[in-house]
Design goal:
302 residues; Rossmann fold; 7-stranded mixed β-sheet; 10 helices; 13 strands
């Protein structure tokens, strides 16, 4: 597998004005990605079809990815997004990785470059875009990241690039968080990242909390932590966006915490992916307005 240092140069500029892209994931029927990408494409005069590829059927799983990617090459997909739970499983199946994707150890966007599938990650830059807009004055001295999966890995890297001084990664899997902390320390400087399974201890003295687990989604309702751990001096950044106003955000606001919803990351990653798919410059404000209108109109059962 190769590493590419100039992802923008590999974007398949949409000269044909017709593109086929998609999303690979599990339980993705609620995804707003098709609507976001297709409408932005129309604004640029492009015919873009965004296909959901949901591996939620009984028996479907990671073992189907090699054949699926072969079929997508043959069909002529210009690229595709990848979401839970395949952002890390897809890595060994790709022909190359951007520097960011390799650093994060997860892929959420793949571009077909002359039959070669090159993985990128726009989750980290997407989270940073939304976070800066929502909480521009946030204290970044000591931040807790809850969740070390694909999204968490990307956000961890982005948070350190954004200037977080000390990052504490919390997850139920001690092996996974230890490996992530070691990797991040090697990339960003020794001692900047620590790992623990004790969320309460991690939050003691922290200035902010980034939530990057599926808890709080319509399919997995609830709180990812005891509400007593929230306090006014702690800002809270959410990754979940369906619903946009999660139980965590509601409890955080009730306790005086500054908050950033998951919509910022959802829009930010789409902006980056659209740029990679088309080679064109999207309008973030237009995509954000469309996204929030879609969320407001959508029902949990849809």
């Amino acid at each position: 597998m190769t590493t590419t240092t100039n992802p923008a140069a590999e974007a398949p500029v949409a000269t044909a004005r017709k593109l086929l892209v998609g999303l690979i994931g599990r339980g993705i029927g609620h995804s707003l990605s098709p609507a976001m990408h297709e409408q932005e494409a129309r604004a640029h005069g492009i015919r873009l079809h965004y296909q959901l590829i949901d591996l939620a059927e009984p028996g479907a799983g990671p073992e189907d990815l090699p054949q699926l990617l072969k079929a997508m090459r043959a069909i002529g997909f210009a690229g595709f997004n990848v979401t839970f739970p395949y952002k890390q499983a897809i890595l060994p199946l790709l022909d190359g990785l951007s520097v960011e994707a390799q650093a994060m150890g997860a892929v959420n966007t793949v571009v077909n470059v002359g039959g070669k599938l090159v993985g990128h990650n726009t989750d980290g830059s997407g989270w940073a875009w939304g976070f800066r807009r929502a909480l521009p004055d946030a204290d970044l001295e000591r931040v807790v990241l809850l969740g070390a999966g694909g999204a968490g890995s990307a956000v961890a890297d982005a948070a350190l690039r954004l200037g977080v001084g000390q990052l504490v990664v919390v997850d139920i899997d001690p092996v996974r968080i230890a490996a992530l902390a070691d990797k991040l320390n090697a990339q960003h400087g020794a001692g900047r990242v620590s790992a623990t399974t004790d969320l309460a201890a991690a939050l003691d003295g922290a200035s902010g909390l980034i939530h990057a687990t599926p808890v709080g989604m319509y399919s997995q309702p609830g709180l990812p932590l005891a509400k007593e751990l929230l306090r006014p001096s702690l800002w809270v950044s959410e990754v979940v966006y369906f619903p946009l106003d999660t139980m965590l955000l509601q409890e955080a606001r009730a306790r005086g915490c500054p908050t950033a919803d998951g919509g910022g990351m959802a829009v930010g990653q789409a902006v980056g992916a659209f740029r990679l798919f088309t080679g064109l410059e999207p309008d973030p404000a237009r995509i954000d307005a469309h996204f929030r209108a879609l969320v407001a109109a959508k029902r949990p059962q849809e």
